[in-house]
Fold this protein.
Amino acid sequence: MNGMTRRTMLATTFGSAWASAASTPGLTKRPFRYADIEAKIARKDFTGIFKDDLPTPCMVLDKALFDQNLKTMAEHCKRTGIDLRAHCKIHKSTDVAKRQVALGSLGICCATIAEAELMVGAGIKNVLYTCQPAGKNKIWRGILLSKKDPSFMMVADDPITVDLLDEAAATAGIRPIVLIDLYSGLTRAGHATGQPGLELAKRIDSKKNLKFGGVMGYSGGASHTKGWETRREKSVKDIAPVVETAMLCKKAGLNVPLITGGSTGTYNIDKEIGLTELQAGSYVFMDTLYMYVGSKAGTKEYSDFKTSLTVLTTAVSANHRGQVTIDAGNKAMLKPTDEVKGRPEIKVENQGAEYGILKWNDGDGLKLGDKVELYCSNLDTSTNVYDRYYVADGDRIVDVWPIMGRGGAVQR
Ligand SMILES: Cc1ncc(COP(=O)(O)O)c(C=O)c1O
């Protein structure tokens, strides 16, 4: 050891680290305890864990704002008489889903079969898989979920799917619930409304092995339309034909237990059009895509729900004037439309796979080692690349919730 004993080497290494920790501004004065922190998290002991201890980039959830968002939506639904079946595509977390259900969400909507398996597996009832199961793999996984939990629901926008589901249900000896998914302004999915929609509903209803579950129409175009009045007009245009089709079904003698759709952007519009339930998702966290769609009160900001989720990053290099490099880039889903929490004058640039650049024109800016929190642009894709929500009360970490809805069984 070049004349240095193990003891003196340790003393030199840690001694100088502690000396610099104590004297260098911006460095934590608490010991670094990463392995210790992981062990504490594993046994759900969060005492003494702070944002400053976290590995970056990571996702941090402001618990107070998150709770407030859940409460705002729950109270709105109670007051206006519309049901909520919250969409989990945003959070992919059973911890969040269970809190939504506890506050009155009828069940949970899922965009992928893996999310549906996660939610049903966690014991959540009345899960709605909002994308038609296509192909052998998804059809059978859907059928198996219905077998496990008869309250699980699927949608179909094509007679071919209806026939295949009926066949598979016969083989499995079950009677799954299937809704019709109707075109609502988004050309990605949805059967034609009106008479063709009624025909599709009748087809489901006539199948021996299927139960008709109602009508779905999701207007993704309306949700982010800027300006509340314009958004309302778009929503009416997209959703009124869906509701009319549901009425046609009722007139034809079909039982239509629910007319589902809607989003965070149209939560205070959808009831008057005739939806019986909302599939809102983003309201739990909010992102910069939603921040400026405008409120009913006429403000440019959409402040009905608060941005409770951030990506915590560290400034890892500061050699150029007016900018620092952060440890979040493409792999962390960084986007130039992300925003720096509390520092609107700082702009975000994407540098590459692992790095981003934060730039400012005047003032103090940021230094090496600074922690920066970013509001992400699109929740669905950002939460998809992280494993956890670190739940925070101020700077203190009070819980850790896994994000598990990405893969199927392999991930879980
Ligand atoms: C079918 C469906 N329903 C509901 C939502 C939730 O929308 P939001 O996150 O805008 O509330 C989405 C989002 O993409 C969706 O695809």
About this structure: The first strand starts at residue 58 and ends at 62. The pocket of pyridoxal-5'-phosphate is lined by residues 87, 89-90, 109, 111, 130, 218, 220, 223, 263-265, 279-282 (CB under 6 Å).
